[in-house]
Fold this sequence. Notes:
This protein is α/β, with parallel strands linked by helices. The chain is 38% helix and 21% strand. It is built from nine helices and nine strands. Strands 1, 2, 3, 4, 5, 6, 7, 8 and 9 form a nine-stranded mixed sheet that branches. Strand 2 (32-38), helix 2 and strand 3 form a beta-alpha-beta unit. The longest helix is centred in the last third of the chain and has 17 residues, at 243-259. The protein is globular. The mean pLDDT is 91.
Amino acid sequence: MIRFTVATVCYNASSTLRRTLQSVVTQEYPHIEHLIIDGASKDDTAQLVQQYLALYEGIEDGRTLVFRSEPDKGLYDAMNKALLQATGDYILFLNAGDKFHTSTTLSDIAAQLPASSDHNTLPAVLYGDTHLVDDNGKFLRARRLSPPEQLHLHDFVNGMLVCHQAFFARTDLARIEPYNLSYRFSADYDWCIRLMQQAEQRGLSLHNTHLVVADYLSEGLTTRHHKASLRERFRIMAHHYGLFTALAHHAWFVIRALIKR
Length: 261
């Protein structure tokens, strides 16, 4: 059976983490490892997770919750810790406050994959769509960028068409492509591109689940540091697709923004 690792990296997130913990533990699909990688929070995060650790002790269907709390070098360093610790076939990152769209999200995805397939032939990436929600979990809107019917490596020249919270990476490939810590705000964009490069080199597919995978909070690290994130994304785009291509697409981004005013 396919096993999923859901990784949540957090710091002082007790006000939002419960929604994520509850979303994972109530998934109908049991073959789940939930990793909480905490940056030595000073709030009630540890106490909250302890409540759920006790809950998991009473569940005997194979799902597990793992809590790791220690200082780190930031968000992407914590994500790299999750990559090293993950035991699932696929890993998905859900931030504190994010949740799965429905209680059947993982079972619906697992049903699309052949249980007896050779692991080495499994898709490199499983992807879907996302919805934005407010602090109370109320739907705000669908994400502006939506995933294409068939994702290809070059598609990310148009931006991050698949949200990080809807991008399941095969763990064995993700582990050899850790997040680049030289990027502070957009390492996830670079990471997704490198995983798609791995897929192309190995002749592996990128599988569209045709599902809304996650509801995620509209206010995140990239949103709070929008200009710095855009500068990083330009550097990443130029690195992977070439400077001329990056300049041409960013000119179009500016024109598109002016047209929409």
